[in-house]
Amino acid sequence: MKHFLGRNRLGIALLLLVSLASCTTTTIDEFRQGETGIESHESVVILGRRQASDYETRSEFVSCVGERMTRGEGAISIVPEQEFVDAMFPWFEPRTAPLRTRDLERLMTEASVSDRMTEFGVRYIVWLDGFTETTDRSGSISCTIGPGGAGCFGFGSWEDDANFDARVWDVGSLTNVGTISTDATGQSYLPAFVIPIPLIARVEANACSRLATQLKEFVNGS
Amino acid sequence: MRRMRGSMRGRVRTALIFMAALYLTACGVSNVVIEGSFPTPNISKLPLNVAVYYDPALTEFAYIEYSETGTEEYNIASGQSHIELFSTILPAMFDRVVVVDSIGEAEALGVDAIFAPIIEEFQLALPAKTKLDVYEIWIKYNMRLMKADGDYIADWVLTSYGKTPVESLRSVEAAINAAAIVALRDLASSFSLSFTQVPEVRDWLNTL
């Protein structure tokens, strides 16, 4: 009976750990500066900002947001980042990309740029800027190997914090129509009792999913 | 018994060879040949007939990164990728581009100008040394533009920078290649967009 209670307790503790691990807090903040809406023949391009010296917006995150915006109700046509940047070369490289809408206005006077923009049917440019940081690492795990077998023992945990800003530029009116900020945090655990069991918080994936949903609604004007 | 000893000896030999190979791999220099493709710039062409001379210092350019103990760690060969880059951007910048083997050959062709780029400096910053989560590459170039008779029109310095974030399951060599490609694209964008703004080039263009 005691043995049974012990097993139950262990099971509850594991379940609690799993539920804690899957728990990610995501905050979305929307700031609208203008009216939005998109026609079926129009598209959106999502670009990562890469001007900062110590980090850069990962292209995987950019494509994750884009891919999710093409799914479900109110799906939007997305121009792949690399395809757009290559087609616009050299105007959207880290050093030459427009930082303000005034720069975009100047850029659109270049016939080759405005022609390509029309070809792609780009109505909105979304600039993604941010990164995921891992903090508060604690605990330790040691692994040993011997003639009788191998195993790991210990406990490790860390916190992931994903901060991303999405600035939406209207290519039609050449204005900034809004900013959506997302902040997702989550604690990951790695208990090891012979075998390490990773209980990873899907912080960046959650940030991507929530930001994509919000952006889709924002662009559709709902 | 003899057969067993022979088999044992063979296994020991194989293990020794494997260990020696592992040791040599761990200590040897990693060769990185920069490879990538570059898009054609969307810019207006200048009505010029330009000869390009690639100095062997550029075509055979290789940078060696040393470890903290002074041993050769990475040997980065980027000469050929620079040739590929210039072969893509120059025809988009000028009406006619011809590659020459010597300055003398260009003089005989009667071109408007001779362009000769060289790499002056190359720097690599690895996350293990900088403690940043990015691989970085800086390249400093000396761009020379000469008249058909070999007289200088302009001689200017251009720098390019490329970085790429640390990613799990990506080798250091692949990350160096990715950072170098970003740096080469940076060179292409700044060179193609700033060419006519170089004071000496602008003055020369006004005389044509």
Automatic annotation (TrEMBL), chain A:
Domain of life the protein comes from: Bacteria
UniProt entry tagged with the keyword Signal: yes
Organism, scientific name: SAR86 cluster bacterium
Cleavable signal peptide: 1-23
Keywords per UniProt: Signal
The protein's name in its UniProt record: DUF4136 domain-containing protein
